[in-house]
Prior knowledge:
182 residues, alpha+beta, outer membrane lipoprotein receptor (LolB), chain A, 11-stranded antiparallel beta sheet
Amino acid sequence: MLRYFSILFILFLTSNSNAEIKDKIIQNLKNTYNLDFKFEQNINGKIENGNCTIEYPKKIFCEYARSNNKIIVSNGKSLVIKTNTSYYRYPLVETALNLILDKNYLISKIFELEERIVDKSLINFTIQEKDNEINLFFDNQSYDLIGWQNTDIYQNFNITFLSSIRKNRVLPKNLFEIPSQN
């Protein structure tokens, strides 16, 4: 009998610590209104990097380093990818960023999903939504979002890592304005 009690106690401690991790991630997301960060993105083996700013809900501005002036901008409704030679505009709802940039959606999903600890340093949640699978990664110490993995609208495998994360800064008002097509 004591053996069964010991096993139940260990299971209780494990599930309690997992609930505590979820609570800390959810609280961190609730307290985050915007963040800026450096990123490294690997799309089917092609690596790019730069800087991004996210403002919840659903706004993002990214400038890519050493590219042909590539930027990505979402105003919450549209997503634009612009370079020196191209301009693409998509409804945000057709992209995985529509879910990744919606912290209320993320909070509701994290609340109901099981987390997975990866190498004792990352916390992973896998979201299945329609035909999308999105893996979110959080730091096990700061509980910050530090990356995601998904398939983009062109069916390319996309891995994005975040670093040098800063939260809740004063942002320029026009940062998320959709650029014009030149």
